[in-house]
Design brief:
Distance between the termini: 59 Å
Radius of gyration: 32 Å
Mean pLDDT: 85
Number of strands: 50
Shape: globular
Low-confidence stretches: 1-22, 967-984
Helix content: under 10%
């Protein structure tokens, strides 16, 4: 009997232990590196679930998990680990010294993958410095860090868009990539507060981006994952900073005495000024007046926590950025919420929503002073012009103007009118994930994006000559974009012996609706009532409604054998209303393979190489027509046209619009080959990656203007040529020093790209980059698209120098290639140094081989008229025998005036400059308070930092800043505003662009 009691007792104890092991238990521990230093921020997750937490400032963690669970531990820069709990309640973890990111999990389309298993060209960008410098836009975090990815700031205007190019420009429609935020396809990422970003992954080749097919991935895909909640007690992370911005440099111009001397040289006699101007007492340096030291302040607070049943993350943010030009400002209020709940073991539901509301007051740029451009007005307005006209002048009290030319002073351009934009941006999703039998997961996700904006412009009827001439004017433009999509996927994940298989199949349906309106009126009685109900004349009203749809089917198979041989294949089929009715559907396949050479037996004795993987891939992606033609198949009609049957009153009717339909319009398709390898050496202290790519875009979609005999009609066509980008990308990371108290890590990358148009009719070319010089409304064109040349090619006459005998600039007989706006290579260097509680992070970046067309110099070195000019004209030619690079002044009645006038009327190499630069993008010095002391007061971490951005830039460019990129303004062969964002239409043209700023910031991070 005792034996049975003993047996039964033992059995019950074992059963209870087994049952207890299945229940969640509390697991504690501490995480350190190999030298005993505590590691905060390490991610600890329960394998196969969403349960997880991160380590505190002292490296400690607390997690609830089953006794049979396996913990996954990961931290950027250290090897990932998997540790079985085995019923333990205390597990201390040491991160291995051999730092490598190959165990890191990266986000890919509709899933994740270990970096060591990736077979395509994917770059994962570190986001740890986002909270250490004033990053306004999320893509700023990529600058200089991702090979093959160039991020440029087209303008220093607060709240302005950034331009991103992945492996050059893949289409004449523009080069912007597709953005995917938490699985939501977006045309931009204005909605996202950078402080809420968890990871950024760039899919560069077709085998990586192919699963998004024709969603726009011809130009690559930038995938952003925002922060999610982690299980455990509530954690709070607060970041506040304030800083000062100032202009990088100013351009020297003539003072009053020098201006009079120039005018005398130009016109033969000294200028005769009315008595209300005073050359002696009025010396307004307009650059000093309109440029200022401007403040920038930001605050951000995030909270996260959760339990076994679910997690949450909540974040609020605020940004106030004054521009370095008076009158410009950008305010943004943002909120972000993520919920993830697991009511059942087989069911997971959740959602993400990001919303912001912004206020922007912009100042006019990229225009001549006669057309209201404040940047150029600050350079060409003579210093004797007063801020406000004095008593005794024809219009006392208005903003100062010249009696010689039309054009107000820059303060008038800034303050005579209001340029205000209020915008609301919302991006969100809700999802359900169900675990089915046979290792299958079903996920259904509904995504939505809503953007609306209202632009208000009001011209005061009394403060400027322009306002007086119109008796005031007002405009209100509104826009609303609503895009929703529904994605459904099935994922099968199975390991059988040496075989590992992951399969994803799915569908996606998308619709976007666009509504716009524009109202205009003049004739305001006062400047008090600024709304359009105050207008009395010249009313104009216009509204528009548009929509388009896409339906897609896709699949991906990832297979590996013996963790050594890797294979990935994707296929996507897209059908859209935005292409020709005869070519609705496009199919985009891609395949890639990988070989982990270091896993082979013959590599066992090769000790200096830890990881070596060779990759190769080929595939195709697609692109849709630009937003200017949402209905390219159809010949459209214009409503609101009045006509008369006879002598009676006119009746409402319709007339043909300027668009002629093309039902045969095909998908624009990019076919891309990628070959690369990844390797790590010396116990993974050095990692290296290299890629070669060849991308050919066929059936380039172009909005072509037809002959004038058609009435100026346009139609969308597929050009009979190819846009080819080919290049090499290299990146390396090295742990230079790895001691207990101090360390130094360095990463660097460089990318070479060559772009060329081939296969086009050699007798056909398309002009691009139209700019208006002086008061002219008729644009002149800086470049063209032509067979055998690159996109962004400047086209004009070669300036051969100034003739010492006549003083005129000598030009070539024919127009020619004057250089290219696309760089030959781009590079970045990131250095991270730490000593005890101090750290210093420095980021350099640069471009080389690109040209900039300095149209601003055409305005300030034209040697004619009565505007002010650059101080460089002081070395102008004056008499026979003078050797100089600045030609003679003209308009003084000599026979040389016509030849000299070419300076302002034609494009020449005289204004094409080297746009290469090397820049200290940012430098951050930080101090982390001792974690053991902070723990006593309940604080997990405190970090104080100081950051400088754009501290210095080495360049030969003569303008304000070499990093410029105008937005599409159209050409005579290209529809106005081609593309939905920054395009190559005015690529590399400085037309009075808002200057860049250098910024100094002090900030504080606190974790609770």
């Amino acid at each position: 009997m005792k034996k049975w009691v003993t047996f039964l007792t033992t059995f019950l104890v074992m059963l209870c232990c087994q049952l207890f092991a299945q229940e969640n238990s509390n697991i504690r521990g501490q995480i350190k590196d190999s030298k005993g230093n505590a590691l905060p921020g390490v991610t600890i997750r329960v394998k196969g679930t969403t349960q997880g937490t991160t380590s505190q400032g002292d490296g400690s963690y607390n997690l609830s998990a089953p006794g049979t669970a396996t913990l996954e531990i990961s931290y950027v820069g250290y090897a990932s680990q998997e540790i079985a709990v085995n019923g333990r309640s205390a597990i201390n973890i040491t991160m291995t010294d051999g730092r490598t990111d190959l165990g890191e999990v990266v986000v890919i389309g509709y899933g994740t993958q270990k970096k060591q298993d990736v077979t395509s060209a994917i770059t994962s960008v570190s986001t740890k410095d986002i909270s250490s410098r004033p990053i306004v836009s999320a893509v700023e975090a990529i600058t200089g860090k991702a090979p093959g990815v160039q991020v440029s700031v087209p303008s220093g205007q607060p709240g302005g868009d950034l331009s991103v190019r992945v492996r050059g420009i893949g289409s004449p429609n523009g080069g912007e990539p597709l953005y995917v935020v938490d699985g939501v396809l977006a045309s931009d990422i204005k909605t996202i507060d950078p402080n809420t970003i968890e990871s950024i992954t760039v899919l560069k080749d077709a085998s990586a981006a192919g699963i998004y097919g024709a969603a726009g991935s011809t130009n690559g895909v930038v995938m952003i994952t925002t922060k999610q909640g982690t299980k455990g007690t509530t954690k709070v992370d607060a970041n506040v900073y304030t800083g000062m911005q100032q202009i990088v440099k100013k351009l020297p111009v003539l003072n009053n005495t020098q201006w009079v001397d120039l005018m005398t040289d130009i016109h033969g006699t000294a200028p005769s000024l009315p008595s209300y101007y005073n050359l002696d007492s009025t010396n307004n340096n307009w650059q000093d007046i309109i440029y200022r030291k401007a403040m920038q302040t930001g605050a951000n607070v995030g909270m996260s926590g959760g339990s076994d049943k679910g997690t949450y993350y909540f974040n609020v943010g605020y940004l106030n950025q004054d521009g370095i030009m008076v009158g410009s400002n950008f305010n943004r209020y943002s909120v972000k919420l993520s919920l993830d709940q697991k009511p059942k073991e087989w069911l997971r539901i959740g959602g993400n929503v990001s919303y912001n509301r912004s206020y922007q007051r912009s100042t006019p740029q990229n225009a001549s002073t006669q057309n209201g451009g404040a940047v150029i007005a600050a350079l060409v307005t003579p210093e004797y012009i007063p801020i406000k006209m004095p008593a005794g002048s024809p219009y006392p009290g208005v903003y100062g103007y010249s009696n010689f030319y039309s054009g107000d002073n820059p303060l008038s351009d800034i303050w005579q009118s209001e340029n205000k934009t209020i915008a609301n941006n919302l991006l969100g999703n809700v999802y359900t994930e169900i675990t089915l039998p046979f290792n299958i997961k079903y996920r259904s996700q509904f995504n939505a994006i809503m953007e609306n904006s209202r632009y208000d412009w009001f011209l005061n009827p009394y403060t400027s000559l322009y306002g007086i001439s119109l008796t005031g004017a007002g405009r209100e433009n509104t826009s609303e974009v609503f895009r929703y999509s529904w994605d459904n996927t099935l994922t099968y994940d199975k390991h059988i012996g040496k075989h590992a298989l992951n399969v994803v199949v799915g569908t996606s349906a998308l619709e976007e609706k666009i509504a716009t309106s524009s109202q205009y009126g003049t004739g305001f009685a006062s400047g008090t009532v600024t709304t359009l109900n105050g207008a009395s004349t010249n009313y104009s009203i216009s509204t528009g409604r548009y929509n388009w749809t896409t339906n897609s089917y896709f699949g991906r198979l990832m297979y590996s054998y013996a963790d050594r041989y890797l294979f990935t294949a994707t296929l996507r089929a897209d059908g859209s209303s935005r292409v020709g009715t005869n070519n609705r559907w496009g199919t985009f396949p891609a395949v890639s393979v990988g070989w982990k050479v270091s896993q082979e037996k013959f590599m066992e004795n090769v000790t200096f190489v830890q990881n070596l993987k060779i990759r190769a891939g080929y595939g195709s992606t697609g692109n849709l027509p630009p937003y200017t033609m949402l209905y390219p198949t159809y010949s459209l009609l214009s409503a609101g046209s009045a006509y008369s049957w006879s002598s009676g009153a006119a009746s409402p009717g319709v007339s043909p619009s300027s668009q002629i339909g093309n039902p045969n319009l095909r998908w624009e398709t990019a076919k891309q080959t990628n070959i690369g390898f990844d390797a790590s050496f010396l116990q993974s202290k050095i990692t290296f990656s290299a890629d070669y790519y060849y991308k050919k875009v066929d059936d380039m979609i172009f909005t072509q203007q037809l002959p004038l005999t058609t009435g100026g009609a346009t139609t969308a066509v597929n050009l009979p040529g190819h846009d080819i980008n080919k290049g090499i990308e290299l990146s390396a990371n090295a742990i230079v020093v790895d001691k207990k108290d101090w360390g130094w890590d360095v990463s660097a990358n460089i990318s070479f790209n060559n772009n060329k148009i081939t296969g086009m009719d050699s007798t056909t070319s398309y002009q691009t980059g139209g700019v208006s010089v002086g008061g002219s409304k008729q644009p002149i064109y800086t470049g063209l698209i032509k067979n055998g040349y690159s996109l962004g090619t400047f086209w004009g006459y070669k300036a051969m120098g100034v003739d010492p005998q006549t003083g005129n600039m000598v030009y070539s007989a024919n127009m020619m290639d004057l250089g290219n706006a696309l760089p030959k290579y781009t590079y970045g260097i990131n250095s991270n140094f730490h000593y005890k509680h101090f750290s210093l992070d420095v980021l350099f970046d640069g471009v080389h081989g690109n040209k900039v067309y300095n149209e601003t110099r055409m305005e300030i070195e034209n040697l004619t008229g009565y505007t002010n000019e650059s101080a460089s004209v002081l070395r102008r030619w004056k008499q026979a025998g003078d050797v100089t690079d600045i030609p003679r002044a003209k308009d003084n009645g000599t026979t040389n005036a016509t030849a000299a006038a070419l300076l302002q009327s034609q494009i020449s190499s005289n204004y094409v400059e080297d746009g290469s630069f090397f820049r200290l993008r940012s430098a951050t010095l930080a101090y982390n308070l001792d974690a053991s002391l902070l723990k006593r007061i309940g604080v997990a971490g405190v970090r104080i930092y100081a950051t400088a951005q754009n501290l210095f830039t080495i360049t030969n460019y003569k303008g304000y800043y070499p990093e410029i990129n105008g937005f599409g303004t159209g050409t005579n062969n290209q529809a106005t505003n081609a593309g939905s964002s920054a395009s190559l239409m005015t690529l590399g043209v400085d037309n009075g662009t808002y200057p860049a700023a250098k910024t100094y910031t002090l900030g504080l991070n606190v974790q609770f």
